[in-house]
Design a protein that fits this description.
Length: about 110
Amino acid sequence: MAWVALFVAGLFEIIWALALKYSEGFTRLWPSVIFGVAAWLSFALLSYALKTIPMGNAYAIWTGIGAVGIALVGIFWLNESADFMRIACIILVVMGIAGLKISGSGSSIV
């Protein structure tokens, strides 16, 4: 269950990062509210996951999910660059997340 919580925490990290962009420095109400709720949920779920997942693995995976997710949102939603180097680096982060997941739970990726 901790791994599911960690994954969902990473998804909420993507949401709060996107809401932060749209809050325009916390001058827009609803994106700011979404930021606050998503950030709180993200940290709460990360905290829950840290009860059983090693801290280094959990934090790296949480930030990795957020980094990859928001990079993909930037590419597909915000029309940011999708050049070779950016995609290659995203792939490397995904490989690192998978490696940490494997090392933190035994032998399976799921």
